[in-house]
């Protein structure tokens, strides 16, 4: 181990570039003799088991919070490690002293605060994929701790803890007791914690792992960042509460009047509420005028189930005369105020905004409120140069103002559901949302044909639809992006239709169409291809409307060809439009770190990623951990090969890398380089009119 090796080519050139690389070995911490039961089951039961992706969670529901709530956003105590075993196994206990731990803001991605490595990937994975397994020798892990106190007037109420987004797998403890588990970076997790909290100070501890089997459905084309990066809330609710609601607006044939249907799920904890209950609702128009009242029949709660809770579905309906219609041009929002009554006593209430809107496909043409529409959309990540994947209301409003200013009317949320505020503001601004499930398996598309992942696919779309279905801005759904063409895509759409029969589905696959979707591609056609494939040569057996979920990449160029595309889009009713790739540059702001070339040529060099300098045997050495760290040497005349000889020399202290490979020196993408191929081979390659390579064996104790 830690072998010192000098490698030289057999030819010499007058300008020899030398590079010293010093890397410390990655040493896995020795596990304690008596492991905590949680740690013994960490990988086998949780992290590498597709059958377990949540534990002790409340079922998904529409997002709304009562007035009795505490935001836990703020500074939390934080400990980072490259592997979960390096975190103290009792870190969640009340007796652990965390005074010396640093603090980290929540919400945030820990890579934006100097922990771990910022990794950008499109198709490939940061590690060699082998689902459901993930790397044991490098799985970035964060341990979080914070405290909170419950208000005195919450006594007797049910208490809940809600995380909006945590990447990627998270374990939760309160006051040293395990509460639950979640996988899914972009889906919420909500826990009933009534039995875990107490008067006075309560300790909340969370362990977050960057990689789990759920990560195989998070292969999106952007920065792979981790941490608690959206809101964390504790809230109180009555023992019998309005748990979920679904709003459906259905217009008559003339699109003048609409039937408003409100389906509500009432839930009780512990013993069911005694006596008869009733739901009522009042509808207020955009000017605040009361326009309708709704009421249910009296109902009782069934007996509690084995889990200690009881549920009752209740419906209300009313005909609304000539409501203002919601669209991107007229985003009219009504307010619906609901009460749950026991006799004359209000035991729970909620208020939210709705829009009157209806979509349908007729003769291959997509209609909104009875009118064919065209969609001029952008693809948009939740991305900020300084905050990573954290979104604030100010950022979203700035984005929406730009979109409206330049006459875009839609956003495809590539490639996962957005933060809650994004949809609230889309309702308000008048932007159509193509809401996309977080199910991208781009590096392992074959798991779209793997039945062991089916439940995970279905759960992610269930979470999205139940959370977002009441937003009028959601125009139609997407079953995900670039996750293969297997049966799991059909399962996603089947699951989604169970929870929302009012909207249609597309899928962001690379095939021309998927049999389960109602809205087909293609993606990235030329204008001529689009016209020939959809406009002029329609398939008589398949007249589904066409939406290009990606059709013009403006990453690094000016977006030429827009007029040509839109001539075709406007000319053919079946073509709905498309979404440009993409809206915001995915760059992260970094401090430039220049190092000095010790030769006479003063060639510019910058350190990239988390690369650092350390003391080596002959001077400063480059310290790399193998996770997107390198030195960028910029093009210079003295770096060019001017003859038929080349020498490369450097000292290397290797460490075991997750991938057992990596480049030591490369010039350009198709010039020459020296790299490790697997754990036992070294390769020098060079391009002339073709690829040439020379391989040599590495020492047996190389890593």
Relevant terms:
single chain; 7-stranded antiparallel beta sheet; 44 strands; disordered N terminus; 8 helices; 703 residues
Indicate the topology.
Blueprint: E1 5-8, E2 17-22, H1 37-40, H2 42-47, E3 54-55, E4 69-71, E5 74-81, E6 103-106, E7 119-121, E8 141-149, E9 158-163, E10 166-167, E11 169-174, E12 177-183, E13 189-192, E14 201-209, E15 222-224, E16 227-228, E17 232-237, E18 240-251, E19 258-269, E20 277-284, E21 290-295, E22 309-320, E23 334-342, E24 345-354, E25 359-362, E26 365-368, E27 371-372, E28 375-379, H3 393-405, E29 410-412, H4 420-429, E30 432-436, H5 454-468, E31 474-481, H6 487-499, E32 505-508, H7 527-536, E33 546-548, H8 562-571, E34 575-580, E35 594-595, E36 605-608, E37 612-616, E38 619-623, E39 630-633, E40 648-653, E41 662-667, E42 672-676, E43 681-687, E44 691-697
Parallel strand pairs: 2-40, 28-29, 28-34, 29-30, 30-31, 31-32, 33-34
Antiparallel strand pairs: 1-40, 3-12, 4-17, 5-6, 5-8, 7-15, 8-14, 9-13, 9-17, 10-16, 11-12, 11-14, 18-19, 19-22, 20-21, 20-23, 23-24, 25-26, 26-27, 35-36, 36-39, 37-38, 41-42, 42-43, 43-44
Helix pairs in contact: 3-4, 5-6, 7-8
